[in-house]
């Protein structure tokens, strides 16, 4: 409610006071006053983001409070445990190291098959670099932002630009539906905006869609548009603004079994190799997929059966 709107309501209710209902309408006026004050306070804080940092190297951006919430225990997998994605992992790690050291680096889009380690790789690369950083180097801080909150991305980046640390903003499962417009905020900060991306901020995103839109949506908009060639170009071209585009694909059975064995060895799960492989194949068949996610879920399952608790 705007101040002028509140004053208008107050005036109308004040007129009712002349009719002998003063006590009742005073309560309403006081309640409206409190609501108006709260809304005005929220509007005043909408252009401010609280970027106070502690010793944590990972944060979650909370749009409701416009602040960074520290995450002390990041749900991550060790970089060395990620198998079957060597090409993508080497490129992303090198890109992230360049950025952490103050050199040129690209925003990155990790797209492709579910469960093949896209978001795990981003968190693992960040963890690995943080563990190797020298004390005299600037901190590399990971910030997760929800897809629904991308409209706040330009303001968040502008706020982070004033801080000396280096920031890696991460959006998991990025995609856009037909009527969404939040992609415009992302498009501006990725490439082409007047202000540009701050030198101390990099943006990584994961998506199951290479072009961030469902194929049927692209085909539908193209078929119903006056100019099919330009119908969805604005949205589709968004993926082209990422300097790195890394594809993740379903793994074959042998790679999947190596993932299982690698996890089992890491968590010291004693199992006959042939029996472990047979059970892993059966587990994948029931899930209808072979991936790193299915592999760790299987290892977690047999660990529980053996009365063992693993941190995974």
Question: What does this protein look like?
Answer:
Helix 9 (253-266) packs across helix 11. Helix content is 46%, strand content 12%. The chain has helices at 3-17, 22-45, 86-100, 118-132, 153-160, 183-190, 215-224, 233-236, 253-266, 273-287, 292-305, and strands at 58-62, 67-70, 108-112, 140-144, 166-171, 201-207, 244-248. The protein has a 7-stranded mixed beta sheet, covered by helices on one side. By secondary structure, it is α/β, with parallel strands linked by helices. It has 3 domains: 3-45; 58-248, Rossmann fold (3-Layer(aba) Sandwich); 253-305. The protein starts with a helix and ends in a 7-residue tail after the last helix.
- Taking all residues together, what is the mean pLDDT? 82
In total, how many domains does the architecture comprise?
3
Number of strands: 7
What is the ordering of alpha helices and beta strands?
HHEEHEHEHEHEHHEHHH
- Assigned CATH architecture of the largest domain: 3-Layer(aba) Sandwich
How would you briefly describe this protein structure?
With 312 residues, the protein is α/β, with parallel strands linked by helices. It has helices spanning 3-17, 22-45, 86-100, 118-132, 153-160, 183-190, 215-224, 233-236, 253-266, 273-287, 292-305; strands at residues 58-62, 67-70, 108-112, 140-144, 166-171, 201-207, 244-248. The protein has three domains: 3-45; 58-248, P-loop containing nucleotide triphosphate hydrolases (Rossmann fold); 253-305.
